[in-house]
């Protein structure tokens, strides 16, 4: 046969108030906890934002200083490079002048040497050590 469904038990108004009071108390505690967590979260957000801003500012300053340093040293290297190139160019010109001077003195040296050899071939009284020979020996 069909079974009868039992009715839920009936509670007294005092039991109902007590249950509602417990539910209200529990809900209030959860609301306070949620509020405290929200406030703590907001405080942490502000603190993190301030720390991030301060750190970013420090990093920006350091990067700006580094860029300034790198630009200074790049300019210094460029200047040194230009000075070195200029000095090399001057030395190459001077080397060319010296090489030309050596070439230019070969003929007079050959002539002076030939003259000294010819003077050495002089005989007797003509073999004189005079001003001409002194000049040729220079």
Features:
single chain, 138 residues, mainly alpha, 2 helices, 83% helix, flagellum, cytoskeleton
Describe the structure.
The chain has 138 residues and is an all-alpha fold. The chain has one domain (13-137). It is 83% helix and 0% strand. Residues 23-44 are annotated as: Disordered. InterPro entries: Tektin-like, Tektins. Residues 26-42 have a biased composition (Basic and acidic residues).
Largest sheet: none
Provide mean pLDDT, rounded.
Answer: 90
Provide the low-confidence segments as ranges.
none
Helix count from the secondary structure assignment? 2
Structural class: mainly alpha
C-alpha end-to-end distance: 152 Å
Secondary structure tally: strands: 0
Large-scale geometry: rod-shaped
The proportion of residues forming helix, as a percent range, comes to over 70%
Strand percent estimate: under 5%
Number of domains: 1
* Alpha carbon gyration radius: 54 Å
List SSEs in N-to-C order.
Answer: HH
Short description:
The chain has 138 residues and is mainly alpha-helical. It has helices at 13-120, 131-137. The longest helix is centred in the middle third of the chain and has 108 residues, at 13-120.
List the helices and strands and how they pair.
Blueprint: H1 13-120, H2 131-137
Pfam families: Tektin (PF03148)
Keywords: Cell projection, Cilium, Coiled coil, Cytoplasm, Cytoskeleton, Flagellum
Function: Microtubule inner protein (MIP) part of the dynein-decorated doublet microtubules (DMTs) in cilia and flagellar axoneme. Forms filamentous polymers in the walls of ciliary and flagellar microtubules.
